Amino acid sequence: MPEHERELRPGELAVDDVEVGAAHTARAHLEQHLARGVTRPRHLGFAQSLPDSGEEHRAHAVKYAPRRVVVRRSLRACPDGPSFAPRNALRVGSKTIVILGGGAGGTMTANRLRRRFGRDEAVIHVVDRDDRHVYQPGLLFVPFGLARAAAIVRPRRKQLADGIVFHENRVESVWTEHDAVILDDATVLPYDVLVVATGARLQPEETPGLGGPGWNENVFTFYEEQSADALRGALERFTGGRLVVNLVDMPIKCPVAPLEFAFLADWFFRERGIRDRVELVYSTPLDDAFTKPIASRELGGLLAEKGIELVTEFNAAEVDGVGGELTSFDGRALPFDLLVTVPLHGGAAYVERSAGFGDALGFVPTDKHTLQSPTHENVFALGDATDLPISKAGSATHFEAEVLAGNVERFLAGRELDARYDGHVNCFVETGFRKALLIDFNYDTEPLPGHFPGPVGLPLLRESRLNHLGKVLFQWVYWHALLPGRDLPGLGATMPTAGKRLEASHA
Amino acid sequence: MTTTLQTDAEGFLTDASQWNEQTAAEIAAENGIPRLTDRHWLVVNFMRERYLSTGTAPSIRSLGKESGVPVKELYELFPKARPSSPPRSAAFPSLAAASRRRT
């Protein structure tokens, strides 16, 4: 046998071509398997775990497979790699549901589906790269010492009901042609239904200068635990100067969060007695404070009231951490002593590696009302991972999960899908001084004044202590009611109109 | 002869059928671009195709990633096209796209 066709030794990887990397390898293995008539291989695992991407891939591939190796032989050489697909997946009649992402959307969906299907009816897998479930709304409070970073994180596994298989793996790619997901250790998970819930990923590297010199020294983001915690120290030490809050571009998770940050910063510096020495600037690529006109008027008014300068239409192009300057594409410059930025967002990296799976930003095309993929009928998506024209927010995800879980069941039963999701989303907006306002809207109705969920309830678009209390209590509700996938009275997939002043939309 | 264009409050064409290459050139001239180069047309045609197929204009980021013209160059090509001063046509490459994708 020529040297380049030698048998693999245990622990070695077969790589067809050192240029293409590990994902291709796993795929090549599967292709061979399929070519031999095995249409639904249950596993193809290898002891060797694969690196993430790019240079690592290449280095790894060179190290382990310096020459071309015939895949057929490698299969014979490594027949017994680790398999994560449980045995009962082979049971006749049992369906396999694979959920990518163990955050809010993935967890709620998994728990809801676990209740809908008996153990012998469906095997449910959840895949996530780590076992740390972050209560993301809590990140806003970390820089101000109002929450500890460690206190908003819990193990992902513990949020999943019994009978859900959790894989702590990165996703290498999705292979829709063969209804299978390839994990980073070359495990292949075939599915009958795939649910995409891998959220959005911060991409500071897409803005020159972000993540470079000054990062976590005078340039921060509170969208990520480590930086939020570093920002807490910087705010404590801050004795005066210019603090610029900037969101680079839409879409971002929780579009109100940077505004809330500005409001809380105003409160924080007033409490410390140094507000008169701090210049607060809020810069946004939008032409107003927020994305929706009526709420924008209200929130813009609050910025003015609190003495926060609003800079609009600012499309950030570059950050100079050392010189303390943020510049826009049209040549404007914003000097800063402290920059709190919301980096660009994109979908999970595997979406880009999966041909035809996502859009240019890595978000997954999703039907607005049924949450089904328009191109793959057994793929559904929810939450921040989708391209839906609604705020990327936990509440939207929660309402979507209700419709999505029902639709997975309908799909598997061959019934018509429920097109009930109307874009419903609501958010508490912290405004400082233990007050918050609440906004509630959907695809067609912008946030309006009134009360939620009915004529008697929490005030909408108006600051109140009750709303702040709601936001504080919400963390308990999140862990104990939302994630387990319980239906909450008044909080459903369709937006309530009973308490809203609909005439305000024509004002 | 210049046609009277039907536009909405933000300056976007309300009747897409009013668009043609001549109209686009006129709008461009009014917005400080005396001559549309091949690079301009690349962006204009990409925007128009996307608008006609999806009903919405792509965001600046998508435009930068997919049209083959980087964001920095977009601003150089269309210097006046800031989000609140959009050129007057959905077919014309308005950088208002980012603020229109308000989600």
Based on the model shown, name its key terms.
heterodimer; A: 507 residues; 5-stranded parallel beta sheet; 24 strands; 25% helix; globular; disordered N terminus; B: 103 residues; mainly alpha; disordered C terminus
How is this structure best described in words?
The complex is a heterodimer of chains A (about 500) and B (about 100). Chain A has about 500 residues and is α/β, with parallel strands linked by helices. Chain A has ten helices and 24 strands. Chain A has helices at about 20-35, 55-65, 70-75, 105-115, 225-235, 255-270, 295-305, 350-355, 395-410, 465-480, and strands spanning about 95-100, 120-130, 130-135, 155, 165-170, 170-175, 180-185, 190, 195, 200, 220, 240-245, 280-285, 310, 315-320, 325-330, 335, 340, 345, 380, 425-430, 435-440, 450-455, 455-460. A five-stranded parallel sheet of chain A has the order 5-2-1-9-20, with helices on one face. In chain A, strands 11-18-12-13-14 form a five-stranded parallel sheet. A three-stranded antiparallel sheet of chain A has the order 6-7-8. In chain A, helix 1 (about 20-35) crosses helix 3 and helix 4 (about 105-115) packs parallel to helix 9. The longest helix of chain A is centred in the last third of the chain and has 19 residues, at about 395-410. Chain A is globular, with a radius of gyration of 25 Å. The N and C termini of chain A lie far apart (about 80 Å). Mean pLDDT of chain A is about 85; it is low at about 1-5, about 10-25, about 35-55 and about 55-90. By secondary structure, chain B is an all-alpha fold. Chain B has helices spanning about 20-30, 40-55, 60-65, 70-75, 95-100. Chain B starts with 20 loop residues before the first helix and ends with a helix. Residues about 85-103 of chain B have low confidence and may be disordered. The interface of A and B includes residues 285, 286, 361, 391 and 392 of A.
